[in-house]
Every structure is written in structure tokens, then in C-alpha cells.
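Reviewers of the previous submission asked for a worked example of the structure-prediction workflow described in the proposal, so we include one complete record here. The input consisted solely of the amino acid sequence. No template or homolog information was supplied to the procedure at any stage.
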Amino acid sequence: MVDAHFPGNHADVSVEFAAVGAEAVISILIAAALFTSRSATKRGFALGIVTAALVGLEFAAIHFAINIDAKYAVAP
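From that input alone, the workflow returned the following C-alpha cells.
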């Protein structure tokens, strides 16, 4: 399965996917803890963290699509 989607150096791709995923999960867990607060400031900050995490995941997906020499990559 990995060879079909990521020919070449699989370790770099796996590590980068794991790093981006872990960062997003940690950010969302911190935001969830802040969002349970009754403070509007903390809730707003939590929503900002979640938004930034999701935007970061989107940029990572675009980066992978452009730079990975995969079967369905954007770059030739």
C-alpha cells in the first residue's frame, strides 16, 4: 500500500505525516481544555487554535501533494 502511494523514500514521508498529525492532535486537545472554561477569551483562543491546526493540516496536505512523487501528485 505504501509503495503504491509513496514510491521512493518512505521514512521521510511517514515521519512528516506523523509530526503534522501529532501537532494537530495536541493543539486540538489543548483547545478542548480551554474551551471548557467559562471565559469568553479562553473560548475564543481555543477556536483560534483549532482553526490554526486545521489550516496547518490543509497546508501540509497541499505540500505533500506538490512535493511527493506519487501516482496522483500535483507536480509531474
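Residues 2 and 10 are 8 Å apart (CA to CA). We consider this example representative of the routine output the project will generate in years two and three.
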